[in-house]
């Protein structure tokens, strides 16, 4: 009993140390955003300056088109999240419930695409986008992200856990496959859908490489690319940059807190069940 309690205490200490390690950079970012530039590199470091500089958050839009960056990120992220929830849920339903020749082989090939590194497909994707004159447009960021093998796998794993008796009852009532998908599976899959939504939101919101490759115009930049452009060649206003970083992080925190219960249930139900 004592050994078990000691192991639990040690595990909690390790988790606490990990939590502190991960939250310290964020706290330092918030701290730097409220300092004057001359106070950022003071040694020994101080958590806050002589006076909190809330004006740094107002100076962001004065020096950079931050509202444009923010709007671009919101637009692209919402479109991608909505599209992936639709396409992944439909594909997941097909692979989980419909029976047709070659279904498992096709599903395996689809999952195999997850093993291909994004760096391998970067140049072919760029060539395709350039051939359709989509470089330096938001469509170059949206179109490749409309479908997701991971999202299909996640929702398929959840759909196979839904009792077949519900599907059989719907068929007896004359429900079509699409009606079963829309009226039964979608309402029951809120935890898995929320989990996928959080993952897609985080990945799209934080994506830096794709905008760096496809976007050249300032008015089309997303937040990660816009924040990178805020670093000067010879000097950088670090408090203003950190203020922009805090604003960039806040939507992720809000989304996760709002979907936390669904997220935990979705990870549990989708990751442990299967045929």
Shape: globular
Strand and helix order: HHHHHHHHHHHHHH
> Average pLDDT, to the nearest integer?
86
Helicity range: over 70%
- Please outline the major beta sheet: none
Query: Strand portion, in percent?
Result: under 5%
What is the straight-line distance between the termini? Answer: 38 Å
Q: How many strand segments?
A: 0
Return Rg in Å.
23 Å
What structural class is derived from the secondary structure elements? Answer: mainly alpha
Number of helices: 14
Q: Which runs of at least 5 residues are low in confidence (pLDDT < 50)?
A: 271-275
Overall description:
- The chain is mainly α.
- Helices cover 71% and strands 0% of the residues.
- It contains 14 helices and no strands.
- It has helices at 2-33, 55-63, 66-97, 103-112, 118-131, 139-142, 149-159, 164-172, 177-188, 190-205, 209-214, 223-229, 238-258, 260-272.
- Helix 2 (55-63) crosses helix 13 (238-258).
- The protein is globular, with a radius of gyration of 23 Å.
- It starts with a helix and ends with a helix.
- The model is unreliable at 271-275 (pLDDT under 50).
